[in-house]
C-alpha cells in the first residue's frame, strides 16, 4: 500500500509516485521489488514501519510503501491521523506459517485441525481488528480549479483585448473623420 499525507492527491500506483521520495523498510522484499521493477524511483531505506509512517507525517518523505495490515495497525496504535492509504503496489502479501520439514508430518495435521476449528466469526474479528480501515472517497478538484482559473484568465484577457480594440477603432475612426474634413 502507498501511504501519504491527507492533503496529497490520489497516487494510483508506484509508477505514479515518480519524482517523489519513497520510503521502504530496509530488508523487506519491497526493496528488491522496487530495485527490480522501478529502478528509477528515489527510494529511502528506513529502519522500521513506524519510522516510515512518521517520516511521511513529518514531510521527510512523500510516500511510504508497506503492507496494509501492518500499516493500519501502526496508524491505530500510534494515533497518526494526518496520513491516508492513497494507492497500492501490485505485489500481494501472501502470509504463511512454516514448520520444520522433519516435524511437518505430525505438526501440519494438528495446525490444520486447529485452524479449521476456528469459527468464521473469529476469523472475521481478527481480520477486522487488523484491517479496520476507513475508506475515504473524496474528489480532487485541483484540475477543475486550474481549468476554471485558466478560462477566467482567458476571458479577462479577451475582454481587455476587445476593450483596447474598441478604443483603437474609435480613435482611428475619429482621426479618419477629421482628415476627411
Describe, in plain words, how this protein is organized in 3D:
With 181 residues, this protein is α/β, with parallel strands linked by helices. It folds into two domains: 1-92 and 131-140, D-Maltodextrin-Binding Protein, domain 2 (3-Layer(aba) Sandwich), CATH 3.40.190.10; 141-181. Helices cover 51% and strands 12% of the residues. It contains six helices and five strands, in the order ββαβαβαβααα. The chain has helices at 29-37, 49-57, 68-77, 104-117, 120-131, 142-180, and strands at residues 2-5, 21-25, 42-46, 63-65, 83-87. It has a five-stranded mixed β-sheet, sandwiched between helices. Helix 1 links the parallel strand 2 and strand 3 (42-46). The longest helix has 39 residues, at 142-180. It starts with a strand and ends with a helix. The chain crosses the membrane at residues 141-160.
